[in-house]
């Protein structure tokens, strides 16, 4: 998928400037001059930027293909990676493998700590091991996942946070919201009582009123529904009677 550094750079470019280049210094969207090693020069203010500036890969001398391969291993490893195994997998020196691994760890911790803001949908879903006709509802302990998704204007979804919770009580749901969302945020939930205490903690709770006929989840909470369906291979189940 990423045969060379040009392919990697183009991919980063699309992630970074989905609607085209914008200069980080002056905001100009004039097409940049291209230099070697992915450097871009703004024709308006001559600011030198690069596709990798401000990313994990900033100023690296390691090929992007190595970083991309590393990212793939880091995100798919089930039981964590040792630098030794990592070096063998990537075919690099131990020291480089250790450095790459360390950068990913720092970045992953940091991204987990940054709180969601703006408009955020929050709901729970059941994940894994629930067969049709199986036990559902708040009794099915370990498989409840609460999901928070930023809703962007004018459309689209931002960052996502998830947590396994033992049950759908306020004791589990409110701490999740407090750990993952800034208190100034507007939190969109359904009418479940587990979210009642959010306003005590400074959140603006917007309640979706689900009619007795039941709006499909993808209508009322498209972000959460999208994430839930990814977790569930397309099917999602209610975590409690509504
Ligand atoms: Zn500029």
Structural summary, described in words:
- This protein is α/β, with parallel strands linked by helices and 242 residues long.
- It folds into two domains: 5-112, no CATH class; 119-231, 2-Layer Sandwich (Nucleotidyltransferase, domain 5), CATH 3.30.420.10.
- Helix content is 32%, strand content 17%.
- It has seven helices and eight strands; from the N terminus they run αβββαααβββαββαα.
- The protein has helices spanning 5-16, 64-76, 83-90, 94-113, 170-180, 217-220, 222-231; strands at 33-34, 39-41, 48-50, 119-126, 144-151, 157-165, 186-189, 204-207.
- Strands 6-5-4-7-8 form a five-stranded mixed β-sheet, sandwiched between helices. A three-stranded antiparallel β-sheet has the order 1-2-3, with no helix packed on it.
- Strand 5 and strand 6 form a beta hairpin.
- Helix 3 crosses helix 4.
- It is globular, with a radius of gyration of 22 Å.
- The model is unreliable at 130-142 (pLDDT under 50).
- Zinc ion (ZN) binds at residues 23, 25-26, 28, 42, 44-45, 47.
């Amino acid at each position: 998928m990423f045969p060379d550094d040009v392919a990697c750079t183009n991919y980063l470019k699309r992630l970074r400037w989905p609607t085209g280049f914008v200069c980080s210094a002056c905001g100009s969207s004039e097409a940049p001059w291209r230099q070697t090693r992915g450097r871009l020069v703004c024709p308006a203010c001559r600011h030198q930027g690069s596709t990798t500036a401000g990313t994990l890969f900033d100023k690296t001398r390691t090929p992007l293909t190595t970083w991309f391969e590393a990212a793939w291993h880091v995100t798919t490893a089930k039981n964590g990676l040792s630098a030794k195994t990592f070096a063998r997998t990537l075919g690099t020196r131990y020291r480089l493998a250790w450095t790459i691994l360390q950068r990913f760890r720092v970045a992953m911790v940091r991204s987990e700590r940054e709180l969601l803001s703006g408009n955020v949908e929050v709901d729970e879903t059941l994940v894994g091991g629930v067969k049709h006709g199986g036990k559902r509802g708040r009794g099915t302990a370990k498989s409840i996942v609460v999901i928070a998704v930023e809703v962007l204007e004018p459309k689209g979804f931002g960052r996502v946070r998830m947590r396994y919770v033992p049950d759908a009580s306020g004791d589990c749901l409110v701490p999740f919201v407090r750990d993952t969302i800034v208190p100034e945020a507007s939190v969109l939930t359904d009418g479940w009582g587990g979210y009642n205490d959010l306003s005590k903690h400074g959140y603006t709770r917007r309640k979706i009123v689900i009619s007795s006929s039941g709006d499909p989840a993808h209508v009322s909470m498209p972000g959460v529904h999208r994430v839930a369906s990814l977790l569930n291979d397309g099917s999602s189940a209610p975590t409690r009677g509504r």
